[in-house]
Design brief:
With 479 residues, this protein is an all-alpha fold. It has 22 helices and no strands. The chain has one domain: Amino acid/polyamine transporter I (Up-down Bundle), CATH 1.20.1740.10. It is globular. It comes from Leuconostoc litchii.
Length: 479
């Protein structure tokens, strides 16, 4: 397909889209935070929480897949919310999502410096952050194909590491690799594998929700996929089984081989790779360089997350500019189909990472991070609502469901289940702050919510928009 200057290029191959969907759900949440979830809720408690969130994410992705194959666009759920629900919702979701990934880019850039200190403790972390930011900018400035290829190989490293972990872990559990670990005792701790009751499982719900954030990237890639009718459904159909294999089986291995009260599980962090649950299992299997190995993999995960963040926020800003929801300069494309102005602004936000290294700037940076904390979950709520409205409008306008290139599973249960769970996870961020009426904690934890509401109301009042009647919903497909 020939492309003209000023036009998005559909150069993402099926393998790119599939691996981006997979890479979006694998990161430090699995490599680092998974150990703490076992410590908090026990083996079965952690597995139940991750399985429930995994099922919810699967339904959410099938909802997004139905809309993305019907009308692929880089604006994804922001465009869908604006067309199928209310233009004000699309506006708020677009800016909300751009802000989320732009700040995530800055957070990841800081994390690169922290992780690099494992090998170079006497070198200032900002140097590594600067190199990472420059690398990510170069990957994204050339073409979408360059981004897809880079993300493919970065995700492949994560996949190979997890497969190696599962093989070694299962070999240890079944006695192929000698170990003194009492597997049955570890798996049956507490109340038959559950620890801390419902509240502990709810807290793991929150962690699991953050772990799976990024899977919605598949909706944005649809706008530049070479064959979205085939690549998007294929990627989505694989999401559930990958989640089942990588998360559930990985947590099972961790639970079986590491006692839930092992203090190292709660000590896992990007600054302390030596106690990642993956590192513990590798070390127990006799792999001496386990800490260095996992440090390299976690560094890869962070760079992958930052790379995806740069791409997602750039495309969302571009899509909003095309609709008139952002300055027109951000809709301009290079001859390679890259929205350069949008990329430059997003990269500039990434420079906030360097502010974190200054004493005065750290407070402002912390507020920015808090402000973006729940924006990913808000996007999930928007996806569920948009799909529910899309399907109802499709039927109300007399269209045949069999004409859809991809149909979401179990409608309307799927989007409604995803909606309820997403709202539950948002509320469950810090319920104790409401119980104790700790207004400072409430404000810091839930800052994303009022910011989203303000964006929504500002646009709604200014443009006097209303929720679109089902028969008036614009079901024209994006070209």
């Amino acid at each position: 397909m020939s492309e003209r200057r000023g036009q998005i290029q559909r150069n993402l191959k099926t393998r790119h889209v599939s691996m981006i969907a997979l890479g979006g759900s694998i990161g430090t949440g699995l490599f680092v935070a998974s150990g703490a979830t076992v410590a908090q809720a026990g083996p079965l408690g952690a597995i139940v929480a991750y399985l429930a969130i995994g099922v919810m994410v699967y339904f959410l992705m099938t909802s997004l897949g139905e809309m993305a194959t019907y009308s692929p666009t880089s604006g994804s759920f922001s465009d869908y919310a604006g067309k199928y629900v209310d233009p004000a919702l699309g506006f708020a979701m677009g800016w909300n999502y751009w802000f989320n990934w732009a700040i995530t880019l800055a957070v990841d850039i800081v994390a690169v410096g922290l992780v690099a200190e494992f090998w170079f403790p006497h070198t200032p972390g900002w140097i590594f952050s600067a190199v990472a930011l420059l690398l990510i900018f170069l990957i994204n400035i050339f073409s979408v194909g360059t981004f897809g290829e880079a993300e493919f190989w970065l995700s492949m490293i994560k996949v190979v590491t997890i497969i190696a972990f599962l093989v070694i872990g299962l070999a240890t559990i079944f006695g192929i690799i000698h170990s003194d670990v009492n597997v049955m005792k570890n798996l049956s701790v507490g109340n038959h594998g559950f620890v801390g009751g419902p509240q502990a499982i709810l807290s793991v719900f929150v962690v699991a929700g953050f772990s799976f954030q990024g899977t919605e990237l598949i909706g944005i890639t649809a706008g530049e996929a070479k064959d979205p009718d085939k690549s998007v459904p294929k990627a989505i159909n694989q999401v559930f089984w990958r989640i089942l294999l990588f998360y559930i089986l990985a947590i099972f291995v961790i639970s079986a081989l590491v006692y839930y009260r092992d203090p190292r599980l709660l000590s896992s962090s990007t600054e302390n790779i030596a106690v990642s649950p993956f590192t513990i299992v590798f070390k127990n299997a006799g792999i001496a360089f386990a800490a260095s190995l996992m440090n390299a993999v976690i560094l890869t995960s962070i760079v992958s997350s930052a790379n995806s963040g740069s791409y997602a926020s750039t495309r969302m800003l571009y899509a909003m500019a095309r609709k008139g929801d952002a300055p027109k300069i951000f809709s301009k494309l290079s001859k390679r189909g890259v929205p350069v102005a949008a990329l430059l602004l997003t990269t500039a936000i990434g420079l906030l990472a360097f502010i974190a290294n200054t004493k005065g700037g750290s407070v402002a940076y912390t507020w920015l991070v808090n402000a973006s904390g729940l924006t990913g979950f808000i996007a999930w709520v928007g996806i569920a609502v948009s799909h529910y409205r899309f399907r109802r409008a499709y039927v109300a306008q007399g269209k045949n469901l069999s004409d859809l290139k991809y149909k979401a599973k179990w409608f309307p249960f799927g989007p409604l289940f995803a909606l309820v769970v997403s709202i539950g996870v948002i509320i469950g961020q810090d319920p104790a702050s409401f119980t104790n009426l700790n207004w400072e904690k409430i404000f810091v934890t839930y800052l994303s919510v009022p910011l989203f509401v303000i964006l929504y109301l500002w646009y709604k009042i200014r443009n006097k928009t209303k929720v679109i009647d089902l028969k008036d919903v614009d079901l024209d497909q994006y070209k």
